[in-house]
Design a protein that fits this description.
The protein has 316 residues and is α/β, with parallel strands linked by helices. It contains 8 helices and 15 strands. It comes from Microlunatus kandeliicorticis.
Length: 316
């Protein structure tokens, strides 16, 4: 089968079409014919070598991608949740033995697979699990009660958009940042208060929440700059493993989504919320798999709203 992988860490042009053996299922697994794979920032980090330690002792090519949508081709005898032909979405861990999503076929634990949201296309479906689960885990980590105030940074992005939607569904008051061109989008996503990003942002937050917010979900990677915005007793959820001393009474919560890839109940709930419109599925563009390097360049250049998606049925 064909896949998009890297044989040596590097820039977008390190991505290439590679040939791999067709995978077969083991106990508890399913095989999926991948139709679409979302392109996420973690994919660019893998390609560049930022996650090289996770692949120590494994031979290239290494296959990026955490989000796949497609059709079930094979089901292990001990799996009863799926049948051949089911349309599904899957959350993959590229550093695991089964590899990433940029492949014509993937094999992975059935626990990491759910049916596609109702009415969603393959491309739309592929944008859901990794970012939405990260947002869900961030909210779970800060553990706020209904009516409390949460600040979502990077609200126009994929993680941020899902964080806004899930926070609203949890009954929270949602503050969010936005560039001028993204204000309408962030309002549509459900933020109660949209604040301008840039100089004066911290003061604007304090004007709306004088004692600080109960928590920050930091999709914009503000990291230490977000700490002063959190009230004593509050929390900061970070999504890239950042960790540093926090002010007394403020807790930093690193969120590592790969550790929760088999939490089927959470994945099922996210699928339901995508089906009922709580979580809009946003596709920026769909490109043939062979143009993966272009997708990585566009993502790294910034400004993409919604997810870029690779079509794994087209390598032309």
């Amino acid at each position: 089968m064909r896949a998009i992988g890297v044989r040596s860490w590097g820039g977008p042009d390190a991505l290439e079409v590679v040939e791999l053996p067709e995978p077969t299922t083991g106990p508890g697994q399913v095989r999926i014919r991948v139709h679409a794979a979302a392109v996420n920032p973690t994919d660019t980090l893998l390609r560049a070598g930022a996650q090289a330690a996770r692949f120590e002792g494994r031979q290239p090519p290494w296959i990026p991608g955490m989000d796949a949508a497609g059709v079930v081709e094979e089901v292990a005898p001990d799996v009863d949740r799926f049948s051949v032909g089911d349309r599904v979405v899957a959350l993959l861990v590229p550093a695991s033995p089964t590899g990433g999503a940029y492949a014509e076929q993937v094999v992975l634990p059935a626990a990491s697979v759910v049916h596609q949201p109702e009415g969603a296309t393959q491309a739309e479906s592929s944008t859901l699990l990794m970012n939405a689960l990260t947002a869900r885990l961030a909210l779970d980590a800060v553990a706020l009660g209904a009516g409390e105030t949460v600040l979502v940074t990077g609200a126009a992005g994929a993680f941020g958009g899902y964080a806004v939607g899930l926070a609203q569904a949890d009954g929270l008051r949602v503050l969010a940042d936005a560039k001028p061109e993204d204000v309408d989008l962030v309002r549509r996503l459900g933020a109660d208060v949209v604040l301008p990003r840039g100089e004066g942002f911290a003061a604007a937050v304090r004007e709306v929440a004088p004692e600080g917010v109960a928590a920050v979900l930091d999709g914009a990677l503000f990291n230490e700059q977000a700490l002063p915005l959190v009230r004593p007793g509050g929390g900061l959820a970070v999504v890239r493993g950042w960790d540093a001393p926090a002010p007394v009474g403020v807790t930093v919560h690193p969120v590592m989504v790969g550790q929760h890839a088999t939490k089927t109940e959470k994945l099922e709930r996210l699928r339901e919320q995508a089906s009922d419109g709580t979580l809009p599925l946003r596709v920026a563009d769909v490109l043939p798999a062979s143009r993966a390097a272009e997708a990585h360049r566009r993502l790294e250049a910034g400004g993409v709203r919604g997810r870029l998606v690779l079509d794994l049925t087209t390598f032309d």
